[in-house]
Design goal:
The complex is a heterotrimer. By secondary structure, chain A is an alpha/beta fold. Chain A is built from 9 helices and 10 strands. Classes of the chains: A alpha/beta, B alpha/beta, C alpha/beta. Chains A and B meet through helix 6 and helix 9 of A and helix 5, helix 6, helix 9, strand 12 and helix 11 of B.
Chain lengths: 245, 301, 367
């Protein structure tokens, strides 16, 4: 199977503090890869390096076929990114946001119009096309933000805690969008604090103190550790943490 | 039982949007009460009305018998409020934040130390650190300490665990149950069902209305259908095919399975249908109802 | 009281933790005073004068007397002597001279003087012409008195004397202006931003749910900026006295009292802005557009109010800085007693009361 993310010995130090410590893993095309860890375990730092936003101290990572250190611009062209904090412009309308990001990602002009219509249709947003994004409920915003992040059909999409503060119904709708993207061959790299969501991933990695402590499918992880739920898996692993923030 | 919070027919509009429509609710003294619902359901609006920060358009509310509109000053000294987003001074240290809020409420850190000790001991190693530099879990513990510093009789917590990792969430809820044992009334809102079951009673909220108010167990008991779970190799394909089947009433993802209810219980027909669609490793069985299933049924995905 | 001191302490923490801002607040007045005092001055520093006299001129002695008189003046110096007017153009273009006196004898004992001035900067050229004209007229008058003693012709010569600011130093005018600007900047801008920040970050939500009375919160916000303004007031007065040699003829106590009043008014304005706007950006725009621009343009700091059209003069009446600057000029430079600026004081007090009342009325007890 085609490998889309390949990480070898990826390390990021801030002085003597190793925020990310020798990560090694591969993610295949179309896979939903969950990236778990307690607050401060180093997830965000690792994700930033994979997106070409920060340079590794040592080690290497190839994302979408490009080295993040040598070709960060190429990497950025081939990925989508969505975070809880920044997603869309609050003071632009729904349609304006879609068109803006379509333009930013270099979608040809004639395609933008038809694709925007198709997206509005798919999300059942046709009536809200002229609504300011700030007036949308959080769950809608997140769905829209995700759709915008994969609008240009990137090879990988990075999602940083995409469903914080969202209720079960909206979260399910959100995950169905993720499934759909994965079925189209987009690799999904997602961090979450919710273990029921972790179950939806094909494979999970669990970061503790900057290192990957476990990496397997949810089912395998539960069996290996002899527990019934992912919540317990998380707690057992997180307990190994020695770092105090 | 003594009534701590009484809400009577409260309505609140923001321009054209009706945030709360005709809500009535009673919360007893010493109860851990959960408001469960999606963003925009009106949870924060209800919190703000009870915390005397907003005026209702219609209706009345009392806290411990005191009217929230007329005697708002009296209420303000007896409640602890933790807003939905992190609302402490990022450029002040942990200790400075605590001392400041203590002074604001006319008390000192030492006076009510016993109440916050449990949480504060996690923060002690970082007491010199600026609040803005804390991790999500630590910020939330600090915010709770600040809300508790004046020993309020009621605690309002608006989505306290958003963005917090599972370990910190568990610690947080353990703290809440300890506070409850000390006789504190706690009103907490959450979009997460695993937290909802930890409450004494919950209110399921949607679009400004209360759909159901009851204990989690009773809500589960009221689930009137047989619930099944199913899994196969290709889960996304399975979900799509299940939704297309006329035999299936409602189907949604649930951890590593899909949960569904039948229109008419015809198990063999369903299995045959799925096999015909080419699904492999089909596993199908009845399953126990959880509060999340109830929520999903009530809001009808 | 305990609550109040806790608030004040917190405000000082906010201010001192933001090193860059506090540095700007304390250094800015110094930079502005120095800039206005030296760099952006419109006064004449030095006039280099050339004399153009044909070699055969019979009046050479009296011309040389005039040259000595011009040279004796502290800001003038005779730097060049030319025998033909053609040289003047080149020298002026090279920037070697500012003014040239050209002497011509139409008939014996009738000397004609032509003054050529580099008028690239018209303001300076005008001042130069007045200045030199005065010297020449004075010289001629004395000459006439010497030669025509018997004829007793009474010559009426206007004698122009610059009062208070004999050299017409612009720093004298700018110092009160800079003060008017700085206090608005620190008090109004910073106070409004710091209050709105609490709303933006959500801390206001918690404070409102506490038993604290809003008045504490507001006065606590004012204290640190008042202190910083006082430091700035001292810096500016010291710089004005020792560096710009402004005489400070008026009483220092009156100057300080008037400044305190103006600082208080600026703080109240900041509070008023914070009750109207919702974001820090809006507070900043409101303070800058609504106050700083009027202070620079309509207060008389740069453009004299007297020269404005009637309608605009009326508008300046609502700019607090106009009253403050006008009163400060009287106190600092004219050295009048505080009773002479009672109109300005009354206006500033009235404005303060009005603004403060409006702000309290607007301050919300809820979200």
């Amino acid at each position: 199977m085609e490998t889309v993310i390949e990480v070898q010995g990826l390390t990021k130090s801030f002085g003597s503090f190793k925020a990310v410590d020798h990560l090694n893993f591969k993610v295949a095309k179309g896979e939903i890869f969950g990236f778990l860890g307690a607050n401060g375990a180093g997830k965000t730092t690792a994700m930033r390096m994979l997106c070409g936003l920060s340079k590794p101290t040592s080690g290497s990572a190839r994302v979408a076929g490009y080295d993040v250190q040598l070709n960060p611009e190429k990497v950025k062209q081939n990925i989508g990114y969505m975070s809880q904090r920044f997603s869309l412009y609050d003071d632009l309308k729904v349609e304006e946001n879609i068109r803006l990001f379509a333009g930013i990602y270099g979608i040809p002009r004639p395609l933008i119009k038809t694709q925007t219509e198709a997206l509005l249709e798919k999300l059942h947003f046709t009536e809200e096309r002229n609504t300011m994004v700030r007036a949308l409920p959080l769950g809608w915003k997140q769905k829209l933000a995700f759709s915008v992040a994969v609008f240009h059909q990137p090879k990988v999409v990075f999602l940083d805690e995409p469903t914080g503060g969202v209720d079960p119904v909206t979260r399910r709708q959100f995950w169905e969008l993720i499934y759909e993207a994965a079925a189209q061959g987009i690799t999904v790299f997602v961090t979450t604090h919710y273990m029921d969501e972790a179950e939806y991933c094909d494979r999970l990695s669990m970061m503790v103190d900057g290192r990957i402590e476990a990496l397997d499918s949810p089912q395998q992880l539960k069996e290996k550790m002899g527990v019934a739920s992912m919540d317990e898996v998380f707690r057992l692993l997180a307990r190994k943490a020695k770092r105090t923030e | 039982m003594d009534k701590m919070i009484v809400v009577e027919k409260i309505t609140k509009h923001y321009e054209q949007v009706e945030a709360l429509s005709n809500i009535s609710l009673t919360i007893n003294k010493g109860e851990l009460f959960g408001l469960v619902g999606p963003d925009g359901a009106g949870k924060s609006t209800l919190f703000r009305i009870l915390a005397t920060l907003l005026l209702p358009d219609k209706g009345k509310a009392w806290i411990n018998g005191v009217d929230v509109v007329k005697h708002y000053k009296k209420i303000r000294s007896s409640i602890g409020y933790m807003p939905g987003r992190f609302s402490l001074y990022q450029d002040l240290s942990v200790e400075e934040n605590l001392n400041f809020y203590a002074s604001v409420f006319g008390t000192t850190l030492e006076e009510n130390y016993a109440l916050i000790e449990d949480i504060y001991r996690y923060l002690l190693p970082f007491k010199e650190r600026k609040a803005g530099k804390l991790s999500g879990g630590m910020k939330q513990k600090l915010a709770l300490c600040c809300a508790l510093i004046h020993a309020p009789s009621i605690l309002f917590l608006d989505e306290p665990t958003t963005g917090v990792d599972p370990t910190s969430r568990q610690e947080f809820w353990e703290t809440l149950s300890k506070l409850k044992e000390k006789g504190m009334t706690i009103l907490v809102s959450t979009p997460y069902m695993d937290e909802a079951v930890l409450c004494d009673r919950i209110a399921l909220m949607q679009e400004g209305q209360l759909m159901k108010v009851d204990t989690p167990q009773q809500i589960i008991d009221q689930f009137d259908k047989a619930l099944w779970k199913v899994s196969a190799k290709n889960m996304y394909g399975l979900l799509k095919d299940m939704r297309l089947s006329p035999l299936v009433e409602q189907c949604y993802t649930f951890g590593q399975y899909l949960h569904f209810t039948f229109v008419q219980e015809e198990l063999d027909a369903l299995v045959a249908y799925l096999k015909q669609k080419g699904h492999q490793e089909i596993e199908i069985a009845p399953t126990a109802v959880t509060i999340e299933d109830c929520y999903l049924q009530l809001t009808d995905v | 009281m305990n609550i109040f001191s806790a608030f004040v302490k917190k405000e000082f923490f906010h201010i001192f933790r933001d090193r860059r801002t506090i540095l700007i607040l304390l250094v800015m007045p110094i930079v502005q005073i120095i800039l206005f005092g030296f760099a952006i001055s419109v006064e004449i520093q030095q006039i280099r004068v050339a004399f153009v006299v044909s070699a055969s001129s019979p009046s050479k002695t009296s011309i040389q007397q005039l040259a000595r008189k011009v040279d004796a003046n502290e800001i003038c110096s005779v730097t060049h002597w030319y025998s033909s007017v053609d040289a003047v153009d080149a020298a002026m273009k090279k920037g070697e001279i500012d003014v040239a006196f050209c002497f011509q004898e139409k008939e014996p004992h009738h000397l004609q003087v032509q003054m050529l001035i580099d008028a690239v900067n018209p303001t300076i050229a005008t001042s130069e012409s007045y200045y030199l004209e005065a010297i020449v007229t004075d010289f001629l008058r004395k000459q006439q008195l010497n030669t025509q003693k018997s004829s007793a012709v009474s010559l009426i010569q206007p004698s122009v004397q610059m009062l208070y600011n004999p050299q017409m130093l612009s720093a004298y005018n700018f110092v009160p202006g800079v003060m008017g600007l700085i206090f608005i900047l620190i008090c109004t801008l910073m106070t409004s931003i710091s209050i709105v920040r609490e709303t933006e970050t959500g801390t206001m939500e918690i404070l409102l749910v506490s038993p604290v009375r809003p008045i504490y919160m507001i006065f606590a916000k004012m204290v640190p900026y008042f202190v910083i303004s006082c430091i700035n007031l001292a810096t500016i007065l010291l710089l004005a006295y020792f560096l710009l040699h402004i005489p400070m003829t008026g009483s220092i106590i009156s100057i300080c009292l008037l400044s305190f009043l103006y600082i208080f008014l600026s703080l109240s304005l900041g509070l008023l802005i914070s009750t109207v706007v919702k974001s820090q950006v809006a507070a900043m725009i409101g303070s800058i557009m609504g106050l700083m621009i009027p202070v620079t343009l309509l207060s008389g700091m740069i453009f004299p109010v007297e020269n404005m059209p009637w309608a605009l003069q009326r508008v300046t009446a609502i700019v607090p800085a106009r009253w403050y600057i006008s009163a400060m000029r009287k106190l600092m430079i004219e050295g009048v007693s505080i009773t002479h600026v009672s109109t300005e004081i009354m206006v500033l007090v009235g404005m303060s009361v009005f603004v403060l009342l409006l702000a309290f009325k607007n301050f919300k007890n809820r979200l």
